[in-house]
UniProtKB/TrEMBL annotation:
Listed Polar residues bias regions: 243-255
Domain of life: Eukaryota
Name listed for the protein in its UniProt record: Protein FYV10
Region (Disordered): 237-262
InterPro entries named among the record's database cross-references: CRA_dom, CTLH/CRA, CTLH_C, LisH, Ubq-SigPath_Reg
Organism: Aspergillus candidus
Length: 262
């Protein structure tokens, strides 16, 4: 809406007028959306969006499927399959990132505990054996590893319905999502690509610039809404949801658009 001299409609701040004068091209926005879909792993949505937007992806969309398969395995709790797929893709990813490897193994332990806790007489020996053989030898190499292992094993002691705030997140689906995101970024980095989509970087840059402007007491509106982010986010969200209906498993909360840009 344009500024109005009406007494019922506030006039625009001069900064908002300058922002309104900036008109990003539709092509640039389309490539931002495409980059988001490729980086975050929505190959079906990327293919459909490329046709609708009449643009050519700068990356082989089919190559994204490997990351999608790994993400799907993690989201479904099949961590062993995910680790095997990562090693098939590039064994150095986990060899050179012990923290990520430990996080995956700990998540595998969580899934074993989840399985044995599903019934009152569940057998906990598989979880204990896995912790002893896979995690215990790694724990002494890093204090955080040891703390994570101890907290995870505590799940065997306390009922799942009365877990403390420090333990409850271990059984929340967000843990799978967070580790899947870390794995996706590690794979992209190993392939010489950016770990994050340009769109996320732009949002971070905008937040940083606004913070610096306010710290410097610059004359900016009390609430700074550039509008561009919302438009791009809507397109990315629509494309992502369309992809989810075409066999793209979602990467973010509840299948919605990345919370950072929504």
């Amino acid at each position: 809406m344009s500024p109005s001299s009406s007494t019922t409609t506030p006039t625009w701040h001069h900064f908002e007028r300058k922002v309104d004068e900036v008109k990003p091209s539709k092509t640039d926005i389309n490539y931002l959306v495409m980059d988001y879909l490729i980086t975050n792993g929505y190959p079906a949505a990327a293919k459909k969006f490329a046709v609708e937007a009449n643009i050519q992806p700068k990356t082989d969309v089919d190559s994204v499927q490997e990351r999608v398969d790994i993400r799907t395995a993690i989201h479904s709790g099949n961590i062993q399959a995910a680790i095997e797929k990562i090693n098939e893709l590039n064994p150095q990813i986990l060899d050179e990132n012990p923290s990520l490897h430990f996080a995956l193994l700990r998540l595998q332990l969580v899934e074993l505990i989840r399985s044995c806790s599903a019934s009152p007489d569940g057998d906990i020996s598989p979880a204990l054996e896995f912790a002893t053989s896979q995690l215990a030898p790694r724990a002494p190499t890093n204090p955080q590893f040891l703390d994570d292992l101890e907290r995870t094993l505590a799940l065997l002691i306390f009922p799942t319905e009365t877990l403390t705030p420090s333990l409850a997140p271990l059984l929340h689906p967000n843990l799978r999502k967070d580790i899947a995101t870390s794995v996706n970024e590690a794979i992209l980095q190993s392939q010489g690509a950016r770990k994050e989509a340009r769109l996320r970087n732009l949002v971070k840059l905008r937040a940083w610039a606004e913070q610096k402007a306010r710290e410097a007491k610059k004359d900016v509106p009390e609430k700074l809404d550039l509008g561009l982010t919302e438009n791009i986010a809507k397109e990315a969200g629509d494309a992502g949801r369309n992809g989810a209906s075409n066999n793209d498993t979602v990467m973010t909360n509840n299948g919605d658009i990345d919370p950072m840009i929504s």
